[in-house]
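Researcher: Re-running this chain for the archive, since the previous output was lost when a drive failed. Same request as before.
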Amino acid sequence: MNIKSLLYIFVTPLVIWALDGVNINAIFKKNKIYQASILYIMICLSLSYLVVNFFMDFFNYTKII
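Model: Regenerated structure tokens:
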């Protein structure tokens, strides 16, 4: 298993935990639960991707790995 995979495994639950504090349902119209869930999943995956790539670039530029 490479480092990027391990970072994804570690970062994705952290992003989900952090987004639990945001009330995304307040943005949507009533009875639009599925759309809110899809947006929540897309935001989680996008943030995980951005954070992992940030750490990988940071580690590569500083030659830590």
